[in-house]
Amino acid sequence: MDRPVSAIIHLLDTIRHLLSRPYLLLVLAPVFWGGNITAGKLAVGHVDPFVLIIGRWAGALLILIPFAWPHVRRDWSRLKPGLPLLAAFGIFGFTGFNVLMYNSSLYTTAVNGAMEQASIPVLVLLGNFILFRVRARPLQILGLVLTILGVIWVATHGHPTRILSLQVNVGDAMILLACVFYAGYSLALRFKPVTHWLSFMTVTAFFALIAALLAQGLIGGGIRDFLSLLPRTTPRGWLLIFYVMVFPSIIAQMFYARGVEKIGANRASIFINLLPIFGTILSILLVGEQFQMYHLVASVLVISGIVLAEISVADLKNPNRQESASHD
In this structure, what is the dihedral angle of CA atoms 63, 65, 68, 72, given to the nearest 10 degrees? Predict the structure, then answer.
């Protein structure tokens, strides 16, 4: 009996130690998110994209509910008026984004998918200016232009003139549309109810699951087709379902929320820009994809753009201002 008890105590001490290291948590979160597009590529031939996404949100919801229920009950008075917005988050930010990302894996590489996600912070910057009149500084604009050029370079496989004749791979086009969805979700987060992050995740995951089931019914072949695909899912497919339900959906969110709590939202948000880098590395290591010359050119453009934009944002921050966390 002493050995199991000591093992549990050691595990709890390890978890407490991990949760006290915000920078490690903020690095691991984009690693797990970057693995999402890699999982989509590894899933080809092993699990249907719609089975993957339904399994993801059904499993995540089952895991979240026991931990989140007390917070949902406490936050319900604030959640109820915001249900339409939370439903939109689930439909577009969670399910819409992932339906496009997973199905894009049938047509393009995971490296492209990872690098094209660098367009999300650029689209958020552009959306803030257009919708909320948040003015951009010259370095931010230069960074935006460089990142857009990098994304175009990837999407056209190093031949940007293809954009003029709309000769873009359908998979790359799906990824770019997914990035528009997620950028819209990110912009709308300023209007979300102020609740515990578990309350927010659970209610949004519920709507994501509903949206995934509707997507299966409308464009995925129907529920009967879904049931017929379950026995065809391979052991690798089930492992990938487990990965996307636990790591990108729950653990990465928990790590990021803890990081925000410890060092503040402004400093923590910079780490999201690591997602395309980790996604590219994982795609090369796990999927075995080749890193082409156009990927290298695009990487230089994207990383330069992100660095310039972050330098500009850092200059705007008042170092004497106490940053507050968004955790409730």
Answer: 160
What confidence tens digit (pLDDT) does each residue in 238-253 have? Answer: 999 999 999 999 998 8
If DSSP states are collapsed to H, E and C, what string results for 282-314? HHHHHHCCCCCHHHHHHHHHHHHHHHHHHHHHH
Q: Is 177 a residue whose pLDDT tops 70? A: yes
Output DSSP code: residue 165: G
Q: What is the model's pTM?
A: 0.81
Q: Which amino acid is at 212?
A: A
Is residue 202 within 8 A of residue 138, CB to CB? The reply is no
Q: How large a percentage of the chain has pLDDT more than 90? A: 35
Contact 185, 89 (CB under 8 A): yes
Q: Which helix (H) or strand (E) holds 324?
A: none
Alpha carbon distance 233, 306 (integer Å): 39
The identity of residue 256, as a single letter, is Y
Q: How far is CA 1 from CA 6, 8, 263, in A?
A: 9, 11, 40
Beta carbons of 175 and 112 less than 8 angstroms apart: yes
CA distance 75 to 327: 13
Say if CB 321 and CB 189 are below 8 A apart: no
What lies within 8 Å, CB to CB, of 118 at 6+ separation is 147, 150, 151, 273, 276, 302, 305, 306
